[in-house]
Each structure stands twice: as structure tokens, then as C-alpha cells.
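Researcher: Next entry in the queue.
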Amino acid sequence: MPEEIRKNLYRVPVPLPGNPLKELNSYVIKGSDRTLVVDTGFRQEPCRRALFAGLRELGVHPEETDVLLTHLHSDHSGLSAEVATGEGRHIYVGDVDRRLLEKYAQVQRSGGVNQKTLLRRAQGFTEEELSAEGRSNPAVTMAPPVTDNYKSLFDGDVITCGGYRLRCIQVPGHTPGQMCYWLEEEGAMLLGDHVLFDITPNITNWEGVDDSLGNYLDSLRAIRAYDVALPLPGHRGRGVFRARIDDLLAHHEHRLAEALEVVKKYPGNTAYFLAGHMTWKIRANSWEEFPLAQKWFAVGECASHMDYLKRRDLIREEPDGEGLLRYYPC
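Model: Structure for this entry, 330 residues:
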């Protein structure tokens, strides 16, 4: 059932079966002339049923509905093309993430090799694991289809709907072009996965981005200046905005110290190997027993910490003769 947060502003919980995130918070803003649906869930039937049941409960009509994406990840964007189906309707998304969505769609359509796959191979994943990712990773299998409905947003842009003004704030880190949306008069902010309260956002390394983690930490510090009384995260519950940002900054300071110690203890190894010697909150007795889907997140996060340390001359990265990236302390 939809939860009424403010007048014309609702939360529709969308389950994410088999995913540790558990559910997505899809937000709906109803206006007199159009409705905005903020994030949609995976392109799979349980998400589809829950989202559209919630929209029907709110009396939302597809011919009047636009989608507003916080970022490109498929648990947020997967159903966007099925929601914004009316003539002249749009899927609004930050321009940086829009270009990545279109790039990934072109690669899939052409059958080409994704740069992310090449990066994972260099990190130390086996060919068997990479093949399994292509078959089972929801980021691949449940991503939005090709569409011409995207409309780019830029930092500082304003969208109006339902009596609300939503100002776009670009917060690179979790994805290169993630956006938060600031409802200043209400002291509310749609956060996507930039700030989560019950779990820590995954920060992975992205192709073409030198320092995803550094970007994320800078974005956290910048957004802390906003007086957010009503934070609206992309997953799970709400909390105290600035206190949570301080927790996240402290968490990554601790993780960076751990990552540096792991490199010092095991010099000359890949992100895949090093991730197996870092601490993770997951039910697995060993790195070998880690679910493969969680290994993708762990290795990507380890690699983003390696990039951060490398940029600050605390470690160095060297490719070996097999194309694997190996790390050494400076």
C-alpha cells in the first residue's frame, strides 16, 4: 500500500526478491496535469506487480506520467520505459547517467564487449564468473530496454510537479551521474542511493572515472550543508540526515585504512584477492563461499578504495603480463 508522506507525495514500496536491498522506495508526486514517479524497480514481474498496483491505488494514469530517475542502476530504472508510456512523456535522468544508459544499451544491442567486463577481468574474476554474471546479474538482465524517452537533467535544473519544486543536485560517486532532488520549502530531499540509513551505499569503480570514492566523499561533504529534515532514501528506512553522513564518512575512513593495510600485507595482488581479505557483513564462512553477486559488489568496492589510495600516492597499480591489475604499497 502507498504511504502518504506529504500532500501529493507518496512512497510505494517495491520488493526486490532475492536481493539484499530487500525493497526499493519508489516515490510518486501527483499533480493536476501530470504525475512524477521517482525510480521504478527491476524489470521483473514482482516489481512490476507491486509498482503498478501502487500506482492504480493512487489513481495514476500512464498517459499523464513521467519518470524521474535518481540514477542508472536497474533496481531504480528497470521499469521506467513501462511507466512513461504516454505520448510525449519523458524519463528524466542526469545527463551523465543518461549517456551511460544509452552506451550500455548500444553495447548490448550490438553484442559487443562491455568495458565493465574488461575491467572485471583485469580485477581478477575468472572467465566462468564473468560468464555467470552475464546470465544472472540484474544490472544486465533487468536493465531498462532501449528507449527514446530520456530527457537529460543538469545540476541546478528545477522540475515542478504537484505544488513542489525539485532542484537537481548532482552527486557523483555511487554512479558517475547520480542526482538528488531538493524540495527546499519542505526541507525534503529525494536521495536515491547517495545516503542510505540502514545499509552503506556501494561505491564501485567505473570505467572512465579516476576516483569514484573520492567523488562520493566530496559529494557527501557538499550535500551535508543542506538542512534536510525529511530525507527520502532509495531503500529501507529514514534517519537523521547529517548524523548519517558523518557515519558514512567515518566508515570509509576506516575502510581506507583497512584497504591500505591489506595491500601492505599482501603486496602484488589483484582487487579480487584483496577483497577476500577485507571484512564484509555477509553470511559466508569464507571468500570462496561468497555468493557471486556479492563478490561483484565487494571487488568493485575494494577497487574504488584502491583507486582512492593510488591517487594519493599511498599505493601503486601495475598491470602484469596477463593484463591483471596488481597493487603494491608505495
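Model: The two ends are 55 Å apart (CA to CA).
Researcher: Noted, moving on.
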